[in-house]
Amino acid sequence: MVHKLIFLYFAAVILISAVLTVTRKNPIHSVMYMLLLFFHIAGVFVLLNAEFLAAVQLIVYAGAILILYLFVVMLLSVDREVTALRANRFWPWLIGFGVLIAGELGLLILQGRFPADAGHPMRAESASGVGALGMELYTNYLVPFEVASIILLVGLVGAVMLAKKKTNE
Amino acid sequence: MIPLSWYILLSAGLFTIGVIGVLTRRNVFIVLMSIELMLNAANINLVAFSHYLQTLTGQIFVIFVITVAAAEAAVALAIIILLARNRGSIYVDDFNIMKG
Amino acid sequence: MSSPIQEILKSMTPLAPEIIVIAGGLLVLILDFFTDKQYKGYLGWFSLGCLSLAAVASHGMVGTTSSVFSGTFLIDPFSTYFKFVFYSACGLGILVSINYLKDENIYRGEYYALMLFATSGMMLMASAGDLITLYLGLELMALSIYVLAGFMRGSNRSNEAAIKYLLLGAFSSGIMLYGMSLLYGITGTTNLGAILQFLHTADLANPVLMLAMIMLVVSFGFKVAAAPFHMWVPDVYEGAPTSVTAFMSAGPKVAGFAVLLRVFLYALQPLHGQSTAILAGLAVLTMAVGNIMALSQTNIKRMLAYSSIAHAGYALVGLAAGGPDGAASVMLYVCIYALMNMGAFGVVIMLRKAGERGEDISDFAGLGKTNKTAAFLMLIFMFSLTGIPPTAGFIGKFYIFQSAVQSGLVWLAVVGVLLSSISAYFYLRVIMVMYMKEPVGSFEISRAPSLALALAVSASFVLYIGILPSQLLDFAKASIAGLM
Amino acid sequence: MLRYALIPLLPFAGFLIAGLFGKFLKERAAYFAIAGVVGAFALSVLAFFDVLGGTIINENLYSWISIGKLSVNVGLQIDQLTVVMLLVVTTLSSLIHIYSVGYMHGDKGFARFFSYLALFTFFMLVLVMANSFLLMFVGWEGVGLCSYLLIGFWYEKKTASDAGIKAFVVNRVGDFGFLLGMLLIFATYGTLNFSEVFKAVADPAANFNYLLFGSEISVITVISLLLFVGAMGKSAQLPLYVWLPDAMEGPTPVSALIHAATMVTAGVFMVARCAPIFSLSPSAMNVVAIVGGLTAVFAATIGLVQNDIKRVIAYSTISQLGYMFLGLGVGAFSAGIFHLTTHAFFKGLLFLASGSVIHALSGEQDMRKMGALKSKIKITHAVFIIGSLALAGIFPFAGFFSKDEILWSAYNASSLGRGLWVLGVAAAFMTAFYSFRLIYLTFYGKSRMDHEAEHHVHESPKVMTIPLMVLAFFSVVIGWIGVPGAIISHANLFGDFLAPLFPHAEHAVAAESHWFELGMMVFSVVVALAGIRGAYAWYVLNPSWPAYWAEKYKGAYTLLLSKYKVDEVYNYIFVDGLVHKLAKVLYTIGDVKIIDGAVNGLAQAISSTSQQSRKIQTGYVQQYAFTMGLGLVVLVGLYYVLN
Amino acid sequence: MLELIPNQLGYPLLSLLIFIPVIGSFILLFVRNAAAVRWIAVGVAAIDLALCLPLLTGFDTTTANMQFGENLPWITAWGINYKLGVDGISVLFVALSALLTVISIMVSWTAIQDRVREFMIALLFLEAAMIGVFTSLDLFLFYIFWEAMLIPMYLLIGIWGGPNRLYAAIKFFLYTLVGSVLMLIAIMSIYFAAGKTFDVLAIMNHQFTYAFQMLAFAAFFAAFAVKVPMFPVHTWLPDAHVEAPTAGSIILAGILIKMGAYGFLRFSLPFFPDAALAWTPAIMVLSVIAIIYGAYMAFAQTDFKKLIAYSSVSHMGFVTLGIFALNSQGLEGGILQMLNHGVSTGALFLAVGVIYERTHTRVIAEYGGIAARVPVYATFLLIITFSSIGLPGTNGFIGEFAILLGAFLHFKPYAVIASLGIILGAGYMLWLYQRVALGKITNPHNEHLADMNLREVAAALPLVVLVFFIGLYPNAAFQMVHVSASNLLQHVNAKVQHVPAMAQAVGSLLGK
Fold first, then answer.
1. What's the ipTM?
2. What's this model's pTM, rounded to 2 decimal places?
3. A107 touches D: beta carbon within 8 Å
4. What are the chain D neighbours of C422 within 8 Å (beta carbons)?
5. CB-based contact (8 Å) between B17 and chain A?
6. Helix H segments across chain A?
7. Which of C77, C385, C415, E418 could bridge C481 with an S-S bond, Cβ 3.0-4.6 Å?
8. Pick from E374, E459, E440: which is nearest to E99 by CA?
9. pLDDT digits (tens, 9 = 90+) for D123-132
């Protein structure tokens, strides 16, 4: 019961802040709301006994990615945003379209049958999932793990190569 | 006990909001953030499932998603900077030299 | 009694090709610091060396089947076949780039590194046994190509291409992720084999299952440029540096089909009934859009972009047909398509001179007089793309439509051939311009050995397969082993 | 066998030599052609005696076409009818060849002319010697070809080449019938060989009836009529006669050989050859007779008023051909052939003589510009008189016997015989009238030539006059080979000679009516003389009459003068209307607008679709994303709808 | 049932016929000098022509089986073989292709000055493809050659053609392509329906269901009707002919449009006899329309080549009329008529080419009275004119007569109407000849025309000889055809299972 309430709180905040993120005129505000959103998602993760992920969510997502966003947003002139149009001129229709999507998703999901629906309580030992997680990560999912490193490298190289000021060309 | 479908509906909502953002907002940053919303929606799903299925795969997946998101964000922002430099604009609908 | 590390090392051996390619990429990055700008070309040759090394490694694995890391990574004839296609696509891509980059004064080693990384991403996609590996491979490829697309930092078109590709790519991978998550939720696993096992017993009427499948169709459709998820293609192809376009039109598309085959004909095989309907519909739409829109293009890169959409449509026909022949036909087709398309772009690059020269179809005017060889090669590629024998293009199309007929999709085949005969119009227009129009002011064209090599390879391939397709055909038929 | 094969082949050799080497041989080319034809003549004479000796030859040279049960050979059939034709053709041909040496002297197409003439002789001989319909058809169209070539010989004259085309195409219309006739014959009897077909026709089992327009028509009638259509074309019968007058555009020897003596009689020959078929179908025979009779009168009326010397003779030819068909139609086959023979000589003579006149007047053909030539060109004048008397059918000239035989058998023929007889007599009267009108206008009265022309008038050279005289001689005597029994019994050698070939219709006449028959002869001669006298009265005694009467009955006169306006009508309906105008319409509407319009329209539609759909590709990322989303939604929606 | 008689000669005759031109064109790739190119090209073509001698002399006229057979595995995965062979139906056209190629090279000697090498290469490549089409006994192989022909023909029209060549070339290409892709689908369906084989001889013996036959026949018809071309899909032909260079027109008229009819004989009839029977009335009517309509079109033309093109439509109408009469006379007549049309129309286009090279116009009104200047040419034109009119003694007559006879035996009205076409034919051809050759010289440019030179005469002579040879001794050709044709008919009759309604109607008409 308590769980439900907590979840509902998190859900509410997540959705609201998501809406705000999408709707704010000033991107900096959006980033802020996004931050809020990430915190609550982390909360949801905790609800789901994924403490480690919650941490990652906060550290990487909130701590790294969002900050990066923030920097760039500030780097590039924000003031213009005040004058410029917020959304393209079709936005009302597109929102309707979004509602349509939501409707379809909702319908299908409600009709859907998930084997997990039984909803067993989480057993204690896997509560301390971090160790198991690590084990999985470094054995079965070693290949993806290594690839992830390459992806980050590519991101790095790409970012540097593209963003740095013109030099020798 | 929280029914699984709640989580999924939540993610669905989040996903939808993200999609709407992508489709409507002109500011390229916010478009990108909306995409992040979509990813997070997926993450919620994954974690929820992994919880109810008692397999860690979902959580692992999430880790990778976050990693990729980071790399993607880096590249994206780099390109945006480039555009802002060359084109002096960060509005997606200004970027349409090529059409037809 | 060996330690886990040794276990891991042992199970690393099947990854040899990927490791070689990635290591090559890293080395290129390092070497880049020590090479002066006029020698950057050698980095290209170096990466070619890596590719051929990897090819040797994969050649050792032809016919072998093994799965390591509890099935997250598979080595089977299927993946090996595709790896060879990737090698050749990347190799040709590099060959056409070496000189092109000089012309564009891009002197950056990263270029080759990124191509290698992209290739390794594709290779992972081909041999992914797990949705996670699949996702990462796909993202690795995608990221590298985002960067490559924007590689001409100075050019607005290039930037625009990059941002468009990136935004839509990210959007589509968002959809894909959501689909994957649902799939995971239903089947309780991300391992493709396990998913197949699960679906054999599960009830397939589950709507969410369908939702997941559709989302995967959308995102993979985006990668292979199937209508209506194709709209990025013309813009990105036009904007990206031509050499990258060439590579893009071959590599990622083929990789996309590898994934499509793996997921829809293997993991989701039980759902084939439903997926066929969807894929057939997409195929028709894609062929129609590609061929009809290409008619009115004046920029050859755009025209080839639409043509590549149309070709994705043909390949989808084979996918919709399904079955061993369907799969084999798709594999054969994408291979042939990759090489002939590479060739066509190679000629476009050949014409690439100061400014936008060579981008407009009218720039080909009188090529048949000014440069007979280039014109003749283009003629071969155009007829091959049209699918006129005795070129490889015909063989590919033939197999595709034949498998469609075999699985009772005669109507689809008829639609396909009719739409493909529309395509004759715009391919022939290029020939017409080359041979039947008078040259407008002579312009010399690049005669770099690398480019010549690339064209020679692809042209001879097109003709050889057109006349003696048996070997490749048998190879393709043998390579579906891992799938069925 | 070879001996007979040589008959056609010799002229062919002449053609090849004259044709291929004409450039070097110049006028010497004529000798080869003449040699060939004369050789053929000699061989024909031999053949004649063979046949007289009772050897009928019917042999195949080689198998020509053989598909399934269709098997046609190239083979010769030499019987009485053939040899008669052989003699006529080769004789006339030889004489005219010789004549032409003088007539064509100095023409730049001299060699070409002789090669054509020889080629014609070849085809004509093939026609008469063929032993199957198909081979006959070869000769049949071959002579058509030569007639086309020779009519248009002076090809720089538009009228000449027009006339050539007209001749060929009108003949094609006839051949259309002939062809269908052959097809039907094969479909019915399974062969095209004369003797086999005739054998098959004889047995009633092979024949059946068609139900056409509610009336039973026997297949034989259909066949006969179809074949007769062919004959109509070739022999210029109503309504297909229109080409013959125009054919006079050709050089006069051509008119003499092709359009008087030989080719135009091919139709007559063909009907006679097919006598076994025709005689089995009374209705067909009647058609033949009626068409013949009408043509005879019809053409004669036109002949009355023509002013072009050659056209007069041309119309008289048509009318005489009508006579022949009249004879055939009433079953007097041998009479028809007899008239063919005599006609060949005296009509050939008349043409050559008129040629000589034209030659003398250096090309003038209009009789209104002649007159009083009697003294200037005596020989020509003499032979002309002889020819005209023969044509008019005055005893004892050739025409008398043949024409009279026809009239007599017509008179005795079936119910409508009498009517036909009247037609015949009327034609005879007019014939006499116009042929002497021609003579008076040409040779008598006062000269209407301009002086400069009058100055040049000269008699033709020997090489021309000698053939004239030979022909004149024949025109007198040739008739005597067919003296009717009424005058001297059993003197109709000709008839007896041909008798074995034909069903004996005319011999049904009872012998005791000889006196009546003689009376008829006298009567017809009187009619002819009346005609002559009339002409004399009009054109010699009081030359003002023609103008006066022409004025009085202007309408009738102009109608005759303009040949009943038939050509104009044909031109309007067929040539302009049904061919050229219709073709234009079909092309511009049917092909260009409808068919090609549809094709190009489709192409247009596709390309414009393409142009339009480019607008969808706006270049806005979000629109692209939206499209993707739309795809997703639609797919899901579809799934949702379908379940 | 037909078999493949392996080639008895020491050398693979048919393969040589196909590949010598290919090799020749490959050699040409390395020759720069135009004169050398011409000589090599004509030499190669001549060798090919010479090789037709053993073909014709060694041909056994007593068997309907496929002779000079070659059979090598090619694409084993699809059961495709490199299978060649000729029978009475195809042998003549192999020879004709070789002959016309030589002739077209000779007439292009001076006419083509621009890119001679490419021109000759295209021509030789075309020859190889044509011979391949006539000799291949594997549907896949056949289709390869069939489509491959499009490439050189497209280039010939498009590069060396007249002012409106681009339109004509693409029209030609698309028209034929659309037709043949449908056939491709049919071929694939046959492959599965007949038990995974492309082997023509095997498929001939396979009994398809009636429904399948109707559809597949329709698909094949689409391809062949366009090629022939039959009535409403003929409009590509005039454009292609008008714009094509002389050599192109000769090949196009001489060989390419025969392949449609050949396809009917080789595939449509033996594969789908029931469907053929059912379709016969429709096809016969279309043929008759084509005959009359084509003739009318010819009357309306002011362009020399266009007129001849439409006359081809008319003549090919006779061919299909004969073939679908489905009796020996019609069938063999049709085959002979294909040959005749190849000779006569080829010669006609040669004539056009000769005069066009001198006057550079094809507008009939621009000529007139040239007979006075160029007697040899005028004579040649005259002979060909009468050959195409179908004058007895020339080749044209034999074919038309046999066809009309066949049609007449099949159903009389067809023959009656078709015979009208003969009258019209005489009309427009003679009118054409008059406007070209006769009359006074109207156009001062023609005052000093040069007559045909030795090369042109040499090119024309074989055709003229053929005109008369076939006209006087057609059995020489028929002997080749007889056995195969009658075998084909037997085969069709034997295979016909249940006679469909339409055919019954025709049958009753045939009864009377």
1. 0.91
2. 0.91
3. yes
4. 606
5. yes
6. 2-23, 27-47, 51-56, 67-75, 80-83, 91-111, 129-138, 142-163
7. C77
8. E459
9. 999 999 999 9
